[in-house]
Write a structure and sequence with these properties.
Elements (H helix, E strand, L loop, with lengths): L1 H9 L4 H13 L4 E11 L12 E10 L17 E2 L6 H8 L3 E3 L12 H6 L4 E9 L2 E10 L5 H49 L9 H14 L5 E4 L6 H10 L8 E5 L8 H6 E2 L11 E2 L1 H4 L4 E5 L6 H13 L1 E2 L8 E2 L3 E6 L3 H6 L5 H7 L2 E4 L10 H16 L8 H9 L5 H15 L30 H18 L10 H5 L3 H11 L7
Parallel strand pairs: 7-14, 7-15, 8-11, 11-14
Antiparallel strand pairs: 1-2, 1-6, 2-3, 4-5, 5-6, 9-10, 12-13
């Protein structure tokens, strides 16, 4: 009988199925009144408990044959659902000591009985409980109440079953963790594939200007090495496309290119985003999560807006770059990864170092091979090719006939300085394609360079009409945005220059109809 029970348990994959199989096998034995299994785990793992990291015994499976009518012993909630490890109850002592307990006559050893009236009512005589041990660790407690004495045969039978149950529980947990991890990796894979499609929609790197060709020659030189690359340049210049080109020309091209936008991650989630976390590491960590470094193992990690990495995380990032080691949040085990890092920023990191906002040692580690992307105003001979590409792309995306880009409009575009660079050019073309009439495309641009902001000057005692005040406020915000390379939040952003909260600035920009051209 016992071998068949053990085999049936071993065939189960889910934890709930394993526990229920054990209980059903036990209650079918002669003279067994009640069988219960408590698992040693945190509240995060127990489906019936609040999210808490405190480890205790949790009643996860129960079953039996009560004498009292209308009573169900299959419930797992109630007074004995959660038992603290420092409790005086016998199951807590079993979990702490790893030693089983056998009571041949409950009427004699009454100090072990929590509810004597219930024992008498159900005519219970013996009790036996064994720890569920796996590799020297107590996973839980398997307990049985009998209506006859707990003899030697019962004791040995329960010991063998508890050992088999421990193995089955450990395997079920490992299987469920593997399933969860595979599911998460599939989600991450789908996300990354979608991200690749979105980035790929910008097309290949276009242009024949001397400034761009100089950058591409540098890409060819550094791509085949394992050197860390720091891509510098204003917002919208195509730094991510350069990072992708470096990856695709490297020996890691068949491995993943994983992107982290450091400017969009809340401060408290930075470490989890980079290194991952285990379930229960913090309040919202209800499942294990793979970090970006682990996802990029064997491939390339692209750190966009690297200047936004908080100081308290920079030391940990430096360790990964130097040693290739990290720990997930809430986990003590050290993991090793093989990742090449390509970083990008529109900030002057040397200035950030001087101001104490960026570690000097991390800067030197990232800037092994600095590479600067030229702004569009320094490669105006590429505007015609870029604009034609964006026209074709926009027409296909919006399902409209491809309009004609006239020589006049091209000259208009060549005179403009494009403070938002290639991204601003694409936005302008998209808008023009939508508004095109009779196959003619007109770019809505000012003549010459971008208009200078209106000086915000108010003489003492002057009363400013609301319309002028709003115009002055709009010009002041526009000037701050331009000085901050169109970044709203973060150190050196427009909100900091204006001494406003980023949310307040975003609200005012929306009210005044100001667009973040460079973002």
């Amino acid at each position: 009988m016992l071998p068949s029970i053990i085999l049936a348990i071993a065939e189960k994959r889910s934890l709930d199925a394993v526990l229920n199989s054990i209980i059903q096998a036990i209650v079918q034995q002669p003279d067994v009144a009640l069988a219960r299994i408590w698992l040693k785990e945190s509240g995060f793992s127990c489906p019936s408990c609040d999210l808490t990291s405190e480890v205790a015994l949790h009643l996860r499976a129960s079953g039996g044959t009560p004498l009292e009518a209308g009573v169900d012993w299959g419930y797992t909630t109630g007074r004995f659902h959660r038992v603290a490890l420092d409790s005086k109850l016998k199951i807590a002592q079993i979990a702490v000591t790893g030693q089983g307990v056998r009571i041949e006559d409950l009427a004699v050893d009454s100090e072990w009985v929590g509810e004597p009236a219930w024992v008498r009512r159900e005519k219970l005589t013996g009790f036996a409980a064994q720890p569920m041990m796996f590799h020297g660790e107590v996973l839980g407690v398997l307990a049985v109440f009998r209506r006859v004495a707990a003899d030697d045969a019962c004791w040995e039978w329960l010991r063998v079953l508890a050992d088999a149950a421990a193995v089955a529980v450990a395997n079920a947990r490992a299987f469920e963790e593997a399933e969860a991890l595979q599911k998460e990796l599939r989600l991450e894979r789908d996300y990354l594939r979608e991200e690749v499609r979105e980035v790929g929609s910008f097309g290949e790197i276009l242009g024949q200007s001397a400034a761009l060709q100089r950058v591409l020659r540098q890409v060819e030189m550094v791509a085949s090495t394992e050197a860390t690359v720091l891509i510098l340049g204003e917002s919208g210049t195509g730094k991510e496309l350069i990072a992708r080109a470096i990856h695709q020309r490297s020996a890691r091209a068949r491995k993943p290119l994983v992107k982290v936008n450091c400017g969009s991650i809340p401060h408290e989630l930075f470490e989890s985003e980079f290194f991952g976390h285990v379930r229960g590491a913090f309040t919202s960590a209800v499942t294990d999560r793979v970090g970006r470094f682990q996802l990029a193992d064997g491939g390339t990690l692209f750190l966009d807006e690297a200047g936004e990495i908080p100081m308290d995380l920079q030391a940990k990032l430096l360790r990964v770059l130097q040693e290739g080691e990290f720990e997930r949040v809430g986990e003590n085990a050290t993991r090793k990864v093989d990742v090449r890092v390509v970083a990008a920023t529109n900030r002057d990191l040397k200035e950030e170092v001087a101001k104490g906002r960026f570690r000097l040692d991390l800067y030197y580690r990232l800037a092994v091979f600095p590479l600067e992307m030229p702004p569009l105003r320094d490669r105006k001979e590429d505007i015609a090719q870029l604009a034609a590409h964006f026209v074709r792309q926009a027409a296909a995306r919006f399902h409209v006939a491809e309009p004609r880009l006239s020589h006049k409009e091209l000259q208009h575009a060549m005179r403009y300085d494009w403070p938002g660079n290639i991204r601003e050019l694409q936005n302008a073309v998209d808008r023009a394609v939508i508004l095109a009439h009779d196959g003619r495309l007109e770019l809505d641009l000012p003549d010459g360079q971008a208009p200078a902001p209106i000086p915000v000057v108010v003489e003492a005692g002057e009363v400013v009409p609301e319309s002028r005040w709003r115009e002055m406020e709009r010009a002041n915000i526009a000037a701050a945005l331009k000085r901050a390379n169109f970044r709203v939040s973060g150190s050196g952003g427009a909100a900091e220059l204006l001494e406003l909260h980023p949310a307040t600035l975003s609200s005012r920009m929306k009210a005044l109809g100001i667009r973040r051209q460079g973002v």
